[in-house]
Protein 1
Amino acid sequence: MGALFRGSLGRLLAWSAPVVVLLLLVPLAGNPYQTQLLTYGLIFAIAALGFNLLLGYTGLLSFGHSAYFGLGAYSAAFMVRYLGVGNMELYLLGGVLMTALVSAAFGYICVRHTKIFFAILALALSQVLWTLAYKFFWVTGGTDGIRVPFSKMTLLAGLLDFAGSGGYQKFVFAYYYYVLFLFCLCTLLMWVIVHSPFGKALQAIRDNETRAQFLGVRVRQYRWLAFLISGTFTGLAGTLWVPLNGLVTPDILYWPFSGELVFMTVLGGFRNFTGPIIGAIAFNYLKAYAVATTQYWQFLLGFVLVVLVMAMPLGIVGALARLKAKLRPKPEAEKAEEAAQ
Amino acid sequence: MTLLQTVKLRKHFGDTKAVDDVDFVVTKGEFLSLVGSNGAGKTTLVNLISAFLRPDSGQILFDGADITHASVAERLRAGIARSFQLVNVFDDMTAFDNISLSIFSREGKTLHITALAERDEEVQREADDILQQFGLKAKRDVAVRGLAQGERKLLDVAIAYALRPRLLFLDEPTSGVSTRNKSQIMDIISSVVRAGNVTAVVIEHDMDVVFKYSDRIVAMHEGAVIGDGTPDEIRRNEAVRANLLGGSLPG
């Protein structure tokens, strides 16, 4: 057990423990709306963590991650509609398998290119899925979408069900903890991935592809693997999202949602591990309150993005880290060096 | 004993004969300098040997095996590593991570996805040892972007050295640094590669450095080898004096 708490993983567990305790207390405040809002935030945080493996750690900007989020959601919806499945664990299994398969195929095509070509190709492929969902309405329900009612769903292999009166409150309460558990698991897993030799190799590819190649790193293969993991994380988030939303429509596959994932990650800061998590949760609140406040909410979000890029290019977490570094007392040697200059 | 040999190796870019039927030999254990004016074909020759470029014709033999068509990865596995003319490091990673990545790659561990890099104590020890040898231990946890030019140059060489190559190509390891730093850098490189029994081929413009550190010197001009010998032989070589030394004799 002691070994687990050594090094950077130990530091992660140490500073995240109080945060997790706080998160555990949220539903006890007795406001289902706030609990539901935070559940959405945690789900988007899982998606943003996956997305940032590509952007922050591999240096590939995807404008097509709505595809994997949507696929995760549609996988669960198809299981409800065509197989009559009402088990969340089976949704997750189906969603993860489906997104892993499609990410593998799309990634194989996309990672042959970089920069703008990669971004556009990822976008184009995601729009193929959107078109299929939109046009094949007899399969997908078209713009009406497919309903995934929480009342017909169980958690923990049938241990928890939400039929009957008070089902909604019970669902929101239980589902929050379910998502929180998976969020913690995904965060831990992603932490290990980015701090593994594989994660270091990805960062090397991001910084200097040629040199990475001359160290024996198989650049394309590693990018593909990063794409696969990234897509699968995003797909898992999509599967978690659909019972909470109750409905999946082609909108979730459409490119503006890919843009939202980019927004979340940039908002929090893509050059650090926690940035996308903070960004996703903050974006979710920002959007929820902007929508409730004004009909011009898109304008408000756009304004925030412009201000953010100009004032805080490193995002919320990056800006806080910079502030912390500024406030930290300088070592005597550094002071003496500055005085000498 | 011959470690590397090129046979009539050729690379032309249009009318430019970058490397023109070059026969080039590297002997095991030597510290060889490849000299020549800009455009002489030195970097192209190294690019061909390291698979950065494909030759138009000719053959590359490494330890007796034909590697002319081998990939970068295959040449790395055979034991050929290189550094680059312009500093080629991983800027946003620490000096330690730069070196440890090299070791992970050499050990075939870069696909290890569920093990924390920092928990591999063997790699940690070796990376620290290499940083120590190259005088970079104090900069262990500094992001490489923040290092001075001379330190970045040394790190560039150290990354290649960490692959434990049998033959190491260093493309202008002292370019862009002061004369005083040049000597420091070359002292370190020379002592580390000699202590590690690594055969080294260094592309260098500063003839003082070349004469001081080399066991053997190969001079190139317009894509061809015009001189090959010990520092004393090169000093006396008329073609080298006319084309490279401007008739002067460095001390």
Protein 2
Amino acid sequence: MFDIIFYIFGAITVGGALVTAFARNIVYAAFSLLFTFFGIAGLYIMANADFLAVTQLLVYVGGILILLIFGVMLTSRIGTVDIRVGTGSRWVAGIMALGLFAILCAAFFGTAATHTEKSADGKSQVVTSWATHATRPWSGSKWNQDATTEALKPKYGAPDEVKSNEGSSGTSVEIGTLFLTDYLLPFEVISVLILVSLLGATMIARKEPTKEEEAIAESVSV
Amino acid sequence: MSSLSNYLIVSAILFMIGASGVMFRKNVIVIFMCVELMLNAVNLTLIAFSQFMGDQSGQILVFFVMTVAAAEAAVGLAIVISVYRNKETVEIDKLNLLKG
Amino acid sequence: MVVEALIKIVIVLLTVLTAVSYLVLLERWISAWLQDRIGPNRTGPLGLFQPLADVLKLLLKEDIEPSQSEKWIHWLAPVISITVAFSVLAIIPFGSAIILSGKSYSLAIASNVNIGVLYIIALTSVGVYGITLAGWSSGSKYSLLGGLRSSAQMISYELTLGLGLVSVVMLCGTLDLGGIIQSQIAGGWNIIRAPLGFMLFLISSFAETNRQPFDLPEAEPELVGGYHTEYSSMKFALFFLAEYANMITASAVMSVLFLGGWHVPFLNTLGMDPSLLAVLGILAFGLKIFAFIFFFMWVRWSIPRFRYDQLMNLGWKVLLPLGIINIVITALEKTYLLH
């Protein structure tokens, strides 16, 4: 069940991304990005990151994509045909993209992942595992959770630890606590960044009004 | 296969599509979209690892990436709009004024 | 579990769809009453069959596809609108949990969504797409202008909506709608605890549902019909449906967030049967929703439309600063008054 839903969301994400990157019609490119963002939000939910999934919808779908669509509306006409670059660089680009994919896969599956966990006697220990053969319970798989926890109980000997990750409390409390403790400075810095970019964007996109326009604006405004 | 590797594969594919889109396309706004795709691929990796490690700090990082992406989209689109106002085009190979 | 959810979905959908069709009739009656006319009274007794006649007419009309339109998106836009309008209903608690033969049934389709408030904001932001894409895909300048206006308007007022919500979240300390109601039962309704937040939320709800005085996306005198100029037949009906469904969801959300949802003050002191209390709670919730809807309609037929720059000024220069001030006020209130 978990697998099927994962594949559905994965297919939506990848399919949307393909259309976004390669559709000739910019309208469809923007629109299919919506599906990609939705698919990714779904994948987040399956990884137990419910708070982030909603934030993903809020920020990407409600903010960034609307901005992009605004950009499309203001800079192109409907049905604009977007012709790709010449064949020479197309081949190079394709090969580079595939090479990137290969490097990423090699990095992902050639690197051991370590994580700390408590063993039965309460001591923390560092466990190394390979991403391909991860034995840690994937608590995102709500559907076969019981099966996983059952299967892994003997190995961990600390079922409480596993269970703490899967309750319905969600991640919002933990994230909020982290923001106001360990990550307080980055949090403040990033809010300043937002403010600066807001001002910058307004300054750049603003059209300098001519004298006549200013006069008209003054006479119109009540 | 574990769920982690599933997530990593989806993320790698997404990153590849985004990167090739940046290289293939000429329209600045489409390139923007493809950059967003790549950022999303990275976020997906972070979330998958955060879940795998049982550590919420990865999710915090995703927050920061999202914030920077939002700021980038706002400033970037402002630039695109002002470029369009001057040049009446958003095709990157026509914006070659510095080439002389 | 799944069956329970499905039954709830069917009940909610049927109720809301019926309510929507009769809200259209109600709106016409109210407008007639406010303008000293008689209103629809020909179809059936008191004109009660008017909604049926309307639906039949819309179904039988020709579905016109403009030649310059983007077919797929043109078709999908009303679907997005209606989906978003109904999705919010999934987390609304329509009453306190009912206990039937020893088993407790919660009256929300998805109860205990611990990010309920965020879910509402996220869906509101998705709602922009229905109208924006409709305006864009129609290939008509009136539609495009309507779509552009709607996206600017809805994004601007989403901020105020969110800031109004923040005060509720601060007071209640939870993002779960059920928890928000419980907190209001314990500490008084939020309309008393955060009146400014309520005002902000109410005003931006008008903008988010594109109702008068903020119905600029469809402003008939300027834009013919705005984003749905090029729509006809069932696709137009879907937009119509979405507008009224949005009104219901906005009213329901406001009732939950500020008027205590299904809570009736002092009722539990009378020592009534719990199941009777639950039924009364549902009725009270319905009444609160109805009051809000009546208010929506009353305003629509009383107040003229805003001009576009006035709308933007109000949103950015008045409501947004007020929203930020409101957060400070709420924080002070929470620190000094409520302890």
